[in-house]
Fold these 3 entries.
Entry 1:
Amino acid sequence: MIRPPRLATTLLRFALPNDTRGRSIAGDLLQEYEEKADSASRVYLWLWYWGQSLALGARYLVFRCREPRAGNDGRRSASTDPTIVVCPLTREEAMENFWTDLRYGVRMLFRTPTLSLVSILTIGLGIGLVTFSFSVVYGSVLRPMPVQDPERLVVIEGVEPATGDWGMYWPMADYVEFRDQTTVFESLAAGYTGTINITGEDGPPERFDGAFLTANGLEILGVPPHLGRTFQPGEDRPEAEGTLVIGYDVWRNRFGGDASVIGRRVRANGEGMTIIGVMPPGFRFPFDQEVWLPYRADWQGVPRGQGNVFQPYGHLREDVTIEAAREEVEMIAGRLAEEFPGTNEGITADVERFQEIHMPAEITAVLWLMLGATFGVMLIACANVANLLLTRAAAREHELGVRIAQGAPASTLVLETLARCAWLSLLGATAGLLVAWLALGALARLGPTDLPRLDQVRVDGGVFLFALGLVILVTVAAGLAPALRALRVDPAQVLMRAGSRSRSGSAFRRPGAQLLLVAQVALSLVLLVASGLLLRSLLHLRATDPGFEPAGAFSFRVSLAGDRYREPTARVELFRLLWERLRALPEVAAGGGTTLLPLTRGYAWTDFVLEGQGAPDGRDRVVADVSTVSEGYFSAMGIPLLAGRRFSAADGLEPLSVIVDRTLAERHWGVDEAVGRWIDNDLIGRATVVGVVDSVLHYGLDAEPRMTVFYPYPARAARSLYGVLRTADGDSDPAALRDAVVAAVRELDPELAVHDTRTLRQRVGASLARQRLLTWLLAAFAVVALTLATIGLYGLLAYAVGTETRSIGIRRTFGAQERDLYRLVLGAAGRIVLWGLALGLAVTFLAGRAIAGLLFRVETGDLVTHVGALLLLASVAAIAALAPARRAARIEPLDALRSE
Amino acid sequence: MAPNNFLGEFEQMVLLAILQKGDKAYGVEVRREIEECADRRVTRGAFYTTLDRLEAKGYLRWTERPVEGWRGGLPQRHFEVTAAGREKLEQSRSALQRLWRGLDEQMRPSR
């Protein structure tokens, strides 16, 4: 026979009394279920049992709890019979009491549905908001690095001050030197990223972002594989069998989550490989890569300067600071430069935290700040609920007094209140998780698409546990005050006061509740103003012309490593060929390269002497940014030419020409006067200005442009360049050029890797990620704070009108008009809102400076934002106050009598 | 119990059904008896709370019958109407009968 749904049975048993009576009722239902089981369909049975259990259980919860009963069990509850001496409870009795308290909590919820609903909504919003921010922080900061001790994981980058190269990868021989000579790392691995084409019987050829690693490359991350194993020592030797580790999503999507995939042969980049492992869900490394191969080569034997280039990475030893690590790698790089001037001269090393590359510290700080702020909002939500429960407790004083007089133990009263709070926060948390889930969905769709690892942000087990913790916190925070108040009730006083408990208008004037609301209105205003200001500056930022055309352009980075590119002429030749090929593509309108791509990490500057400026001995030097660009770069970027000409293929070392930007030209010569002037630098020599281009916002859309001098690439051939391609057809997706770029580079030199591929629009978007995130989150807080304040205001007024029915009725008897009652309620609301707005304005005025640094072309005292926020708040508050006011106005004199 | 405190209609049905079922007056059977005779649906919630109420008023009592092999091993209650319950039923019936006296002719044409 099919067993009845277990959960339904459990719920029913919970609702029924835990004695023979309850058990027999459950047994009756089971008996009928068994009788039906032979003839009815499975679905019908399931529905029937669930329906009956819920209906029966609800009935018992709502109507039967706590009714004194003297049945065959002979038990009486202590509170109904003062003559019974309260004995210490047995364990079973204590358990029974606990369940009774919980049940009683449910019953209380049903008794005051409005209050319950308002409380649940309030807690739901609070918990939802905190859960939401926690999910974002947890997903993108706490969890994003799926490796052990991510804070100690660092990379070694190459820097060449003379050419302005930075963030360079290292040839194999250098990695081996670092590996053998450094003492600051636990162990050092290396890798580079690339595309990996997988073909095989499991599906059509598919391309994945992957990484080529040393054999210890996965192992040192300290992440055990989901299935199989990671690479073993020696698997990066040239003679080793080809092995492959795949990511969880690849495993699920391409291989159908089949566990027998371990040991399967596939072809990766045309070579037969065996799948040896599957990494756990969420593991991607180093960025979004999800397929890993050992790079099989004779690591010790590759001649200096040859072979591929790699980024060395590893965990710092626990007792080592990053400064000490920098010192050591710099020293080793210096030694290498001395020993091997042919390949390493002028190249030094830097250590950078992996996390910093992943997720800049400033974003992390903002996220933590947000999480802290949301806790504040949630505590306000708790205060709101505590306040609502307190008002309710005040109304129940009489009842409590009677019960205490009858001998109800204090612990029962406290537990009852806490039980009720527990239900409220549990239901609130359910609503909150829903809110968080919806908000995350909205964030994923509308939010900053460039927020790192946004796809990893979701409501999962960790978040769920967090929400559960919040439930406990909220229960205590919101329930303790009302619960303790229950203890302070003095039955004698309460009973004597009976019948004369309402003074006119008293429920409208409760200083504690009013102050709380004033604070909330103020907070709402502050948040509304702050998010309004941020929104306006974000709009300004988005409307800002970066000095180039972001639409329809693709960018990437190529680094020439190894001996073959020791001579600058080899570099010039390779890039000349590359641009030639790429420009020949039908979908490309223009293409070129630069050492410094705007809105991208990296900078270089030096000092110049300008013709006609300052003293002739060159003491008055001008500091300007230095960039090296190839022919075609300005057209590809869409940077307008203001005077003179752009670089052509003929521009090289002799004669040396430069192009300057508008900022430099305007400040020293004037745009029209600049062409033909000379510019001098100690290292590079004297050059003639041949053109003036418009200034570009290199350091961010909110930064001022800096003076910039552009050299033609052949004059200062750096090893690594950013390439920019502009599509011929404005509509086509520039990212589609990625394959063509990779193919062209591979054709010229199969060992070269293309990395950091992004459209220019993505780069502009990424540069606004922080502002956008801040704006969105602050706006979300403002909405929640406003909603909480509204609910709080409504709750206070509705409760006041409800408890003052009698006095309002009496006022009616004495001739009060509807108008007067509207005035009574709206006046109470108006006082709170006005004080709140005044306080809020004062805070925005005083705290304006805190946000000023985040604003762009918006004053902290921006009138539009302030007026908008005030109007919004006032109108929402008016709506919240109107319903209770109407109810008050409809009270008839007779209602007053009925209410007693 | 004050004599003017009459049983409700449903309370009467419950007590009568228990008397009808006699030895077999278990929860499921009693409820089924009411449903069949009165031709109406009886929700479990109303049924059991009424049983509890009648028990609290002292009109019925029950004894536990252990079961084995069915009902998930959960106990069965056998219900009995107490003397007070019978008296109450009788009281209700005679009141109704007095009220019905001579009305049969009058009621018939209107049907």
Entry 2:
Amino acid sequence: MYFRLGCLAIVPSILWLAAAPVHGDETKDDAKDISSSFSARILAVTDTILNKHIDPPARQAMILAGTKALYQANNRRIPKGLSRRVSELATTEQLTDYLDGVRGEFKSMPNMEMILTQGMFAGIPGGATLINTEGDKVNEQLRKNRYVGTGIALGMSQPDQTPQILKVFYDGPAWKAGIKAKDLILEIEGQSTTKKNLRQIVEELRGEAGEDVGVVVRQPDSEESRKLTITRGRVFIPSVEGVRELPEGKWQFSIDSASEIALIRFKSFGPSTLHELRKAAEQLRDKDIRGVILDLRLGGGLLHDTILVADSLLDGGVIGHIQSLDAERKHEAQPGELFPNLPIAVLVAKQTSSGNVFLAAALQDNQRAVVVGEPTAGNTYVRSFVDIPGRNDKIVMATAIMLRGDKTPLVVRRSGSPQRVTPPPIHGINSKKRPGFIMPDHVVANDNIEGRRQKKDAILAKAIEVLTSSTEEDGVSAKKKRRTTVER
Amino acid sequence: MIRIRLFILTLLLTACCLPASGAEFQSRLRRPIAIAVSSDGKWLFAANRDSGSISIVDLPGGTVAKEIDVGGRTSDLVAIDDSRLLVLDEQNHQLVLYSGGGVDWKVASRLDVAQYPVCLKVDRAAQRCFISSLWSQTVTIIDLPEIDPSKAAGDLQPDLAVTKELMLPFECRELCLASEGTKLMVAGAFNSSLAVIDTDTLELIAIKQLPGHNIGGLAMSGDGKRVLISQQHLNPLAQSTQDDVHWGNMLSNLLVSIRLDEVCDNERDLLPSRIPFQLGEPGNAAGDPGPILVAPAGKMVVVLSGVGEIALGGDNDFNDLKRISVGRRPTAVTSTAKGRIYVANTFSDSISVIDAENAKEIDRISLGPLPELNLAQRGEELFFDSRLSHDGWMSCHSCHTEGHTNGQLNDNLSDGTFGAPKRVLSLLGVGETGPWAWNGRVKKLEEQVSNSIEKTMHGTSPGKEQVAALVAYLKTLPAAPAASMKIRENAAKIERGQQLFRSLECQRCHTPPTYTSSQAYDVGLTDAVGNKKFNPPSLRGVGRRKSFFHDGRATSLPAVLGEHQHQLPRNLSKSELDDLLHFLRSL
């Protein structure tokens, strides 16, 4: 957990509702829970999943999967009749007795509870993770772009094992204090950093807003060390990026090789994303832009903010539906759109997931954008943080599914292992709306190893080609007929 | 009523042309809301709303030279030339023409105009003036007479007469002349409607609807090709969370530029050419943008009324606006050719003088001593103050425009949940229509006020005194005037409609005289998160609403009773429906 925070810069890009891996330390924290025994804790987790998951497996199936994981982790053969035995557990007493037995059998095993829990989660549609309260606080700050800290990304410089600053966030506390990228941290609050690991360093740098931390740093190729004071505060981590970061903290969005095309990469959807996108649009307004590419291949984020972005790009129309256990909500865009009159291409790939899928589908269905890339993987859910009664942690899991405007689901719901949904074959698909997938308008089988080695981005290249070759008429015909007046 | 008004008028006429006092000005609330400068740049005339007076400021001296009482409540002022001033009196529903010059002015003529006149524009040839009247939804066109300065003050000059009245489908406020004065644009006072009037034929040629609400300023760009609009946008998809407020996702303050030719053409969509600029930024928002001034030498000013600032920039480049602090609630701006900008600070009773070149306030001229404010007056100041909200994004007025409603949907916690945006309710007459919130759970208006500031605007928790002041102000707001201004002509229908209202038992929930009641009822409507019980909104002013029910699902009053059959025990005949609608519109 702490190491991940050390690499703060990179974390937001891989968060979808900020899932963090189950950690050994967290299991120890769980043991501090006063009221609950081992079996009660496990049953609380299964109860929460049964109550709140959009498509939960049976309790017995979760417990069986967890038990099997313990046998496998111990390199032991799974006993004959285990499945039958678990299937026949019916009452809370029987389940408690069974779990107490499992605990007795594996009590010498380190991280036993964690392995059992992870085993249970592996079979749940959309997966699940546990997150403790402290981790959630930091994750929430990140998700909502309210992270309080020094505003740096840390690594260890290799030969001499000195903490090194990989990135200084523009206009953040460290930036304002005069910290430069590549600075080696020699001292924190008068204490030498040698022989400390990254986790300790991060812990020493972390603190509340308004607090000062004194550091001594130097550039790797310089002998001169600098003594600086950083006042911790809110760090803004951009969620929208362009082609290249300019020195004044802005991004260049126009592509070098095709300057009339702008590239906007979404790292993660959070509360600041709409604002950043509007600013990008203002920045591009004076440029002679003929088309905009939105890269939705990586990242996840908050669904609410993804919907706000979809709204901003659509001039009316249905964005899609969110189906939860309690309700199905239709989301509709308001009149007015960013980049009016400009064609948009959206980049998707196998790994495009969660809200990005929802956004790409909304833009495709409303004929606002052409979709370029690979078919998406079809295993994506809306995930939420759900409190587990009696425990001080939360479970992150699928609580809703996304539907397109015409109610085609954006997930393939099937029993068994949901992580291994086969994308449809690229050829021979005649429907863009096959349930669960986004079929690009221009399919590009990219991201093969060869392409990556040559650092060629075939999907981006195709999108540039599509946008530059589209004539004026194409651009107009791709747009839906506009209303002359807007009814409210 | 009219006879009474004429009587008051006659009384006033005998007294009002005398100067209020000499060099010593009395302590009273003035609240300047409109300003004009004489062509030689020597005099500034400020129309004071609350004192119903005109302050004449000696600009070189930086002091008030004289104050003239107009009477009533002034709402706008234009200096036609150096010998004629036009003033609107919102309270007496009159246009007043003054003749004179310098500090000496006398009433030349008064004219009754459509009720609640709020904005005044004079064409470039100074031959015609245009008046928007808020609640009567009317634009009045008046041909201006030549003045005979030899006539005595009491002698009304008879040739000030209404040329034409045009009814609009919305309550209107801001006006702007375009295309060499051949077009007049009229903006909605609450929602973002725009109407265009051809000033040659005096016909309505276009009506458009823009996204957003609260148009506070309307002006033409320097090249005359684009319309500049300052306004706000409340996003029903956003929620009143700290995050959505902080990043401007929920409510944004905009300077919008659209093409004039598209505004004037009913067949064309103006959205493709609409360019919105975000005013303010996270951490330093620009709540309640007001009037726009496109000044000589390529300068442009947007008044940021809610945060007590103006934003100054080039009339072609809005990306780099320089913000300058002025007094409290600036609401009017004008300039001289010499690069001076003047701003009326309504709640400071002062005029800010800005050096446009150096973007600095160089003087602030007091219009007279301020008395101690009573509770409701302090409440009014708070109501329009965006600094009550997180980072200055919005004031109470941003959603409850002038105490009424912006007609939009907002997803806030006043119904206890996110996910079901609700219609913003009018606060006109709100002091009598408890309980509050859509579910009727809030029994004290004080509680509702605190909730709005803390949970929707995300401001710091207001003190008891602030809440009491806001509540006192809200209680001074009368219900909106009835939509139907022809009550006498339709008396028989209204009477039959009222009987029907009783016999259909509408009054069980919508109980006179406030036409609401204290319970929450399940009337077969469910919101997006499953709430079923709602407190009935008051029906006073119901004929003015553009959308109905909690989520605005019905878009006309006939649809409420027709398509939605709202709580009707039986089908109504066509004439019964007509009677009932006439009654409702008379409320």
Entry 3:
Amino acid sequence: VSRRRGPPTLAVRFLRRFLPPGLRDFVEGDLLERYEAYARTSRLRADLWFWRQVAAAALTRLPGPMGVDGAVTFSGFGRDLVRVLRGLVRNPGHSLVAILTLGLGIGVVGTAFTILNATVLRGLPFEEADRLVHFERARPDEGVFSLAVTPHDYLAWREAQSSFEGLGAYVEASAVLPSDGGPPERYLGVRISANAFSLLRVAPARGRGFSEDDERLGAPEVVVLSHLLWQSRFGGDPDIVGREVRMNDTPTTVVGVMPEGFGFPIAERFWLPLRLDLEGTLRGQGRLDVFGRLSDGVAFEAAVAEFERICRGLEEAYPATNGGVEASMRSFHDEYVGEEFTRTAVRMLIGALLVLFVCCANVANLLLIRGSRKRRSLALRVSLGATRARIVRELLTEAMTLTVLGAVLGIGLAWYGVAWFDRAGAQAGVFDLPHGSDSLFWWDLRLDARTMAVVLAVTCVTAVVAGVVPALRSSAAASGGALTVRSPGSSTGSGRLSDGLAVVQMALATSLVLLAGLVTRSGLNVAAADDAIVSDGAYVTTVDVPSGSYGDDASRLQLAERLIEHFAGRPEVAEVAIASRLPLALPPAASLHFEGRDGADDTGVVSASPEYLSAFGVDVVDGRWFDDRDRSGAEPVAVVNQSFASRYLASGTVLGTRFRLGDPDGLEPWVTVVGVVPDLWDQPLQPQREAGVYLPLSQSGMGDPAVRLGRLGLRYQTLVVRVRPGTDNTSDLVRAGVYEVDRALPVRALESMNEVVQRQMGRYRVWGRFYTAFALVGLLLAAMGVYGVLSFGVSHRTTEIGVRRALGATGASVQGHVLARAGRQIAIGVAIGLLAGMGMADGLARVLYGVDPGDPLVLALVPVVMVVVGLAASWLPARRASSVDPMVAIQE
Amino acid sequence: LFIRRRAVGKGTHLGEFEELVLLAVAGLGGDAHGAGIHEQILNATGRDVSMPSVYVTLGRLEKKGYVSARVDIGGPARGGRPRKVFSLKPPAVRELKAARGARDLLWSRLDFEAGPAGGVT
């Protein structure tokens, strides 16, 4: 990088613009000469000096060539702009506050709109994507609206319908790919019908899509890769098409690669052909996601009507399986984004617009104050012949200039806000979308042209909203002869206006602070929940046990024992355990029956090895945990969590209680409770704790095969490894270990327990921080608003206050008067805000952890905070009022 | 009233900044260009004045007939930009001398060693 010599290029360019042609070369030369002198000591200082000179050039009216004055001719808007800029520089505090306020407001709106645009408005990146429809089945009579489509129905629909260009279908699939010199890796994708890509109107970037032949049962397996998988797993191999890879232990030919960014329907890494085995599937069984593209000229309603007919036909033909079944259709986009998320995003934008509105009110107030200070000079100009329109134009230019500068700041803030949101949203569970997805392939959070256009429009509206009232008022005051007469009570109009603004601001801030209060309490609960989990050094991953080589319980149990044995022998590993579920995941639920008691209860069930508890460094609350005694064939035992014990059993009777899982007369053995543990890993972190049961891993082969296979069959084994402090590369350690035990075992990504906790708490944390930031902004704005309104009032009523003082009012009584007025506004605002906030809090319940939206502590504290902040903001104006010199005030 | 005072103020007497600029031009002899004037004022008063305001003042002084200007070629230090070189005209010398005379007269009446004479604190 070559070092720049001379002043900043941009500065020079500006300088030349500001200088009249006749002087340009001379002044520029002089500045270059002096710049070099400054640069000898410090280049930074020289740069700053040069910029200052440029600013001076912008604000100085330079004479033209050879003494002709006014060669820099700005007419109309330009002249206003120069005057405004001069005013801003002369009044830096005021201007800065206004610019910051507007920047904040525009930034918040920019952020909220970008998010809404990227996630909801932009939609799928396909041609006429709004004509893509997603199908489900519903049984409205039974209140069930979201059933997967069966293969038989899909094919019947496909044959009978004419409203769509075609129907396609897909079903989730996972693929295990071997990697060179390491354990295999697992990826998510779908099996999809051959017509899908053409329905979406997207062609593969390389190779081909699927043909009808590929859908035949028993045809050679072929795969289409996503751009991402092609790049990450195959290093972007240019000869990938035609290459054979081993996928799920099956030789599979890569026939194509989809374009970058394509991941239909959610965020898929590969596509396999959909192969429907109608003979091997009973009518009424099997599950598919179905979608279609509406034909040109067909209305959605017409398609719905057609499918009603088709479903009635199927109902008559197959009453056993299709009785009461209807097709439920909605746009593909709505299906995957969902109303819940859309509502959240829209609500966020509305909140942002409210904040912007408050910002506008604040700036309008500042401009009113400035207008009232400039009243005399404006009046002078009116009396010298300036028209009112001319004055209004200048005042609007002032608002516009402030807003544009604010918008520059706001775009920066929005950029930052969007980046933050993108990072935060990358954590699972934050967005909570339908179909369990965390993000969708077409989401792309960034500022784009549309966002910029909206910010621009918002900026213009903001300028008018913030500027027009002050401009009209100030100009009216100026033309109304402010030069001569000034009566004490003449300002009630604008006074009432700004009082109203203060109340609105106080109300808005109160409701925001109320929300923040709830979120803060929730945050404290989240932190407490975090602390209960000792997760340092603990890592978890899941091993998918192939049913081919591990066909029965005994072999799977043996695998678990070999894994434990292997890792226990490693010096880096302090503890190792195996369980049937990931810690903090939702466990399978089972009904249970207590011995000698009628009726069924329910509980989550996890099976775990004896090392499980010590791997997390926890102790039993009562009784014992599993040990070597609890072998297969020994007396079946269980350990329950505290919620189980307190919900179902009287204290003192817990140990020794016997219950049976599943059917009361079923094949499951009676199990005896031998211990109680804290509510921790048997369920997701959530405020409502559920009953949970642990069974010993070694006894998981006992009892009902259905229960074993469905729930505890160890098809997936969760490996918990706690490493000694200072161990690096735990991921490699675990991969290598599993690889050594069995080279064919695919391992999913290793996660630290901290990450798992983070993932679960992400939603509460991210939204919590978001609302807290909102509330702080609101509080700040409200304080500024109250301050602004009162300062305005005081400066406006200087004469009145002077008269009061002259008539004997003490400083304290004047101060009291101003504070009382402020107190009234604060009280009204806080009352309205509390009511509004309580209304809004209901919508927040989803992100509150263990806090009721009507939490009494928060409801009591918020008004106190608001009143304190409000009075603090009024203190300065009140003091200024009490120090008004009666003589000066009256003479003015 | 306003307009008349303006005429009186700017028409015949020198403003403080005008005086500074004129003195700087005088001090630089036949070679007074913007950069030199800026440097002179900076060294003498510590004020880092803006170049455009120097030119504004020079323009006014030129109109009043106190300075004359010619264009000179520029060197590499100024990127080859031409220089506008100012020199004093006789009325300026007269005006500066008059200003100094008035000040000297006022100063001569003061004696700080003996303590402030009336109103100087």
